[in-house]
TrEMBL record:
Residues 1-23 form the signal peptide. This is Solute-binding protein family 5 domain-containing protein. Residues 74-427 form the Solute-binding protein family domain. Gene3D superfamilies: Dipeptide-binding Protein, Domain 1, Dipeptide-binding Protein, Domain 3, Periplasmic binding protein-like II. It is found in: Periplasm. The keyword Ribonucleoprotein does not apply. It comes from Roseibium limicola. Keywords: Signal, Transport.
Length: 504
């Protein structure tokens, strides 16, 4: 029996007991309304569409997932209570029998099957398709048992199911994604109440929740693009939790004594993508020049207060497969200038750098200046997050030339970050190489954990050699919170409301 099978069978009973203990009911409610300031309002509340942070923060509380992770990052039961790998390509899951959706209908194996068929249907065009398309069949064996069959061995299956939100077939199958987005129905600890576009999304505590209930009767999520305004709201008491502060604001918050800083190094990797399928970026020498031009240490220490960690691979230490010792580009602007000068007119083409207000514009502007300093012609194109996401998930000929972004799959598995960003079949990828595709396909099918880790090391070394993408740093996220809010941020950035508490 291989390592994956042994691990799945050995951990299932323990995970079940942990999950049941975690589901103990709350004793009461300490606060009627919690107000959360996001950067933007959600792009969607359909969990099978975008999973950008501002969307995920909200809908993660409306829906239950097949599996989840505890605060330490270990996989544990949620809708599935236990599982057994019966062959290299088949896993049977036992499901909870006491879960009801917010409209009172019971959650069954048919809903799980429908969920998987929905998100893997190419016509549905989920941006998450690449995370789940190894699943080729879902079968309901009875009301509380489902068998999943994968296209070959798939060791990342459990990690991916951590973010598979179960939707009700009787609701979602009668609606378009846009209609479901406007009135989402899940089985999670909070129920959707309303979405006033441009103002707030409101959810309320689910009295019928099977697990641990949230400590707040109502939660309001508001998009507040300006970080200084988010912090001012926290200090004025009009917000209880705010996301994405920078290091300077964190220092100010700590010095003020009105609120506390909560931060965590996440699985999110900040990276710089170059559309290598189009001239002039199809020239590897130009991409090397960009690699030498970007001062990652300067960005981390000078702009980000030393919170993030510079990385040379498209993984963070929070991922399986992280390998010490890989070395990427050193900051060498003179080398970059020499390369650019040797490229002649091809290096003078305007290169648009796509960004959105959700990203730290100091970093974007610093990178633009670094590219300008070595002789490149980079301009910033800033759009709202919904437009940015649409522009990224497109064909190579339509995609931006340059992109600063930060990627998290919320799964802590390399398949969730490297496959979508580097495999030529992905609409997120701006790189095409048959050797890379072959290695990525092999890695997502290798059940031997040691061999799989070695494959990802090879993939990262190939990405460096081909300058397929430029990893920058492991992102740290800095939250500001009321002193009364008890909550521990996690590496996968899941804002679980029912894992919070409030103390007067």
């Amino acid at each position: 029996m291989n390592t994956f099978k042994k691990t799945a069978r050995r951990l299932a009973p323990l995970m079940l007991s942990v999950g049941l203990a975690f589901a103990a009911p709350a004793t009461g409610f300490a606060k009627d309304l919690l107000t959360v300031n996001l950067v933007n309002e959600p792009a969607t509340l359909d969990p099978h569409q975008q999973w950008n942070p501002d969307s995920y923060y909200v809908y993660r509380n409306i829906f239950d997932n097949m599996l989840t992770r505890d605060n330490a990052g270990e996989i544990e039961p949620q809708i599935a209570t236990s599982w057994e790998q019966i062959s290299d390509t088949e896993v049977v899951f036992d499901l909870r029998d006491d879960v009801v959706f917010h409209d009172g209908e019971k959650l069954t194996a048919d809903d799980v099957v429908y969920t998987i068929e929905r998100i893997t249907n190419p016509d549905f065009a989920s941006p998450q398709l690449g995370q789940f398309n190894k699943i080729i069949k879902a079968e309901a064996l009875d009301d509380t048992k489902v068998k999943l069959t994968t296209d070959g061995p798939y060791p990342a299956l459990l990690a991916q199911l951590v973010k598979l939100s179960i939707v009700p077939q009787h609701v979602a199958s009668t609606m378009s994604s846009e209609e479901f987005n406007a009135a989402p129905v899940g089985s999670g600890p909070y129920k959707f109440v309303k979405w006033d576009r441009g103002v707030e999304v409101v959810v309320e505590m689910n009295d019928a929740y099977w697990g641990k209930k949230g400590p707040f009767e109502t939660v309001s999520f508001k998009g507040v693009p300006d970080a200084s305004t988010r912090m001012a709201n926290l200090q004025a008491g009009t917000a209880d939790l705010v996301v994405t502060l920078n290091a300077d604001l964190a220092d100010q918050l700590e010095a003020s004594g009105r609120g506390v800083v909560k931060n965590v190094n996440t699985e999110r990797v900040a990276y710089f993508a170059m559309n290598s399928t189009k001239a002039p970026l199809d020239n590897i020498e130009l991409r090397r020049a960009i690699g030498y031009a970007i001062d990652r240490e300067g960005i981390v220490e000078g702009l980000l207060g030393g919170y993030p960690k510079v990385v040379d691979q498209m993984l963070s230490p929070a991922h399986f497969g992280w390998k010490e010792g890989l070395t990427g580009f050193t900051y060498d602007p003179e080398k970059a200038k020499e390369i650019v000068a040797g490229l002649g007119d091809s290096a003078k083409a305007e290169l648009e750098l796509a960004t959105s207000p959700v990203f730290d514009q100091r970093v974007v502007q610093a990178i633009q200046q670094m590219l300008t300093d070595v002789g490149l012609n980079a301009s910033i194109e800033i759009v709202d997050m919904a437009t940015w996401l649409k522009d990224q998930q497109t064909t190579n000929d339509q995609a931006p030339m340059l992109t600063f972004s930060r990627w998290s799959c919320a799964c802590q598995d390399p398949d969730g970050i490297m496959y979508p960003l580097l495999h030529s079949s992905s609409n997120w990828s701006r790189f095409s190489d048959p050797v890379m595709d072959e290695k990525l396909d092999a890695a997502r099918s290798e059940l031997d954990l040691e061999k799989r880790a070695d494959l990802y090391a090879e993939i990262n070394m190939l990405a460096l050699e081909k300058v397929a993408i430029l990893p920058l740093y492991q992102a740290a996220i800095i939250y500001g919170a009321s002193e009364q809010l008890e909550w521990q941020p996690t590496s996968n950035e899941s804002m679980f409301l029912n894992r919070m508490a409030w103390s007067e």
